[in-house]
Amino acid sequence: MMKRATRKRTVRLLLFGGMVALGLRGPVPAGEPAGKSPPRARAALVTISGVIEETLVASVARRAEEAVADGHGILFFHITSDGGYLDAGLDLSRDIERVARGGARTVAFVNSQAYSAAAIAAVSCQEIVMSPEASLGACTPYAAVPFAGAQPLEKEVRAKLEGTIIERMESLAEKYGYPPAILKAMVKMSTSVIEIQNKKTHETKYVEEEDLFRFDSDWEKREVVVSPDEVLTVGSQKAKQYGIAQHVVNRLDDLYDLYPIAGRIDVYPVTWNETLVTWLNNMWLKAVLVLVGLLGLYVEMNTPGFGVPGTIGLAAFGVLFLASFLAGRPDWLPILLFAAGFGMLFVELFVTPGFGVLGGLGILLLLASIILALPSFHGLPQRDFEYSELVQAMVVTVGVLVAFAVCAFLLARFFPRVPILGKLVLGPSRVSDGSSHAAAARGEQGARAGDVGETTTKLRPAGKARFGSRLLDVVTEGDFLDAGRPVQITRTQGNRIVVEPVREGPMDSTTA
User: Is the peptide bond before 461 cis (omega within 30 degrees of 0)?
Assistant: First the structure.
């Protein structure tokens, strides 16, 4: 994560910066005779904004490919970003090169800021145009620690990651003509860059101080442009001076005067469904889905039959597990763990008596499925930043469980008194005559504590029992009973009727 984006996200290795672009270098195609106007071509604008992560990278690639397929020969990438994840930034950089190799002329338009991962994407273009207020740079990697923000990396890890970024930047510099020393100074703090000038040709270059010996006496040292105690970030004028930006423009429409554009620039924005998928893959929204799913299933377990609460709960878990599929990165492991855990709990509750190892293992698998569904990586973690994100997912899961416990308590205690909601979540009513009973059960079913009846189905632990002429849905507190067993109502909680087996004495008569 870059210093300018310490508070933007909290997990994984981050490179945070600003605007991204795609492009080929030079306003005039290579080999075009001097003085001859280049042929005009249709132009497209692909917007890139927000955190650079996998979903955004996929969106940019799709829109760029669509623009090329639609016959656009010039692609402008309008970037507004503080950066993002290192791996996503490198993926975006490679995608930009592929667009350029496809024959389209691509240009990065940095309108405000392009830091870190966004800066890498910008210099992946063959040409960069900036507004007067724009800036780019600051590509030093940081570690995002859960709830602690950006933290410095260990020396060995930082050196390895800096080497990866520098290698990429130097490759782009060689391909597109950017000064490699300037790009390296955006990544590594200890880089000292010197301006030198040829006495005869007056050509200016920017090189590392340690490389001065490679130049003959025709080159003279001018000044230090980057000191070794800073990570370089440049504004538009400095970027143009150093040979990074080719043009500085006041507005987007000025591009019509710089490039051979035929007609109007067609805009390829992020679609609503891509925005929705991005939101659905956000860890905090996933945590809300988990909470909604747990509450829906809790309410369903405390009401007879199957209705709206259970449907909402299952739908929430469905969206949670399908979010990665919608983003084009299917992850089956959380789904398989959830299905296995749910199956074990079902067997424990409705097939085998009591609650033991199978039920405990089922709960653990359900928790594991939720924890693995929250992060953005797939399967099991393999890299350092993925382990950091896994830790955050564990902490978030604990928070969700605490919130669920609080909400469940409030549902049981207060919601039965709320109009309409009380019909969905019914808790125990107050005892008025020494025999605890619920208003809803008394009014609709006439069930009362102390009534004795007989089971008509097996109770595992839920089933049906007949009390006089009434056939009611009942549940035991852990006991599994066969059909034909005498049972007695111990208490009612809304529509939930709790019974226990009658172990001694003759069966009491019941009221119809």
Answer: yes
pTM: 0.64
What six digits make up the tokens of 139? 């590509």
How far, in Å, CA of 313 to CA of 319, rounded? 10
Residue pair 102/14 in contact by the 8 Å Cβ criterion:
no
Q: How far apart are CA 96 and CA 223, in angstroms?
A: 34
pLDDT digits 0-9 by tens, 196-220: 999 899 899 999 988 888 888 889 9
Identity of the residue numbered 454: E
Same domain, 7 and 138: yes
Domain extent for 492: 439-501
The set of residues, in sequence order, having a beta carbon less than 8 Å from that of 426 and lying 6+ positions away, is 302, 303, 416, 438, 440, 493, 494, 495, 496
Give me the residues paired with residue 459 across strands: 481
Q: Say how many domains are in the chain.
A: 3
Please tell me whether residues 282 and 394 are part of one structural domain.
yes
**In a shared domain, residues 477 and 379:** no
Instruction: Tell me which of 353, 383, 417 is where a domain ends.
Output: 417
CA–CA separation, 216 vs 37, rounded Å?
39
Report residue 391 CA to chain centroid gap. 15
Q: Are residues 315 and 369 in the same domain?
A: yes
Last-in-domain residue among 383, 417, 451? 417
Pairing of strands 74-81, 193-198: unpaired
**pLDDT tens digits, one per residue of 119-157:** 999 999 999 999 999 999 989 888 766 555 667 778 888
- Per-residue pLDDT tens digits for 223-264: 888 888 888 999 999 999 999 999 999 999 999 999 999 999
